[in-house]
Design a protein that fits this description.
The chain is α+β, with helices and mostly antiparallel strands. The chain is built from three helices and nine strands; from the N terminus they run H-H-E-E-E-H-E-E-E-E-E-E. The protein starts with a helix and ends in a 9-residue tail after the last strand.
Length: 201
Amino acid sequence: MSRTVLLAQEAASHAYHFTEHFGRNFTWDNADAEVLRQKLCDVTDTMKHKVLRKPDRQITVTGHACFEFREDKMLRYLGKSVQAQNLRFGQFSLVGAIGSYLPFLAAKCGLGLEAAELPPLSPFVQYEQLEIQSRVGLETFGFKLVTRNDRGELIPTDHGHTIRLLAYDPPQGERLGLLYFNLQTDGIEHYKLPSHLGVGA
């Protein structure tokens, strides 16, 4: 997840610094655009300076593997989610903020934007194979669980279940182990090395 978070932070920095072409002290007349600019500013400054003078601007950025959960305990992988949080803006999707900011930049520059084609959703399965870059940091690997409401919208959920996840190390496909992740405590309950895994584990 660290690479995903880093890429999101770098994208936020590029989007924020692009406004410097409009002037050093540029601010948006549009209130929504200005809020987005300030969010990206907080992310960029925290990434650059580590500790900011104003504590309410200090940003924490976290990455999660996002899963859709059904009542029959089936899961499907939706993708990686990058969330940012500080005191003045609360929690927000960093990638969502960047995506919402780009149309304002494009309009200011007289450019058009083309919507990217999204890949098809993964099928529902009993467990998921995740690409975890190394054994280091498994204890802090984040998971986000969502479910669909009556309107088909994805909303956060926590059923208190423990889900089983098989971990692989790309690109060689080395089997790292079997994770038992407790959705209630938000932590990895158990981790078995490949040599300790039985047949069919």
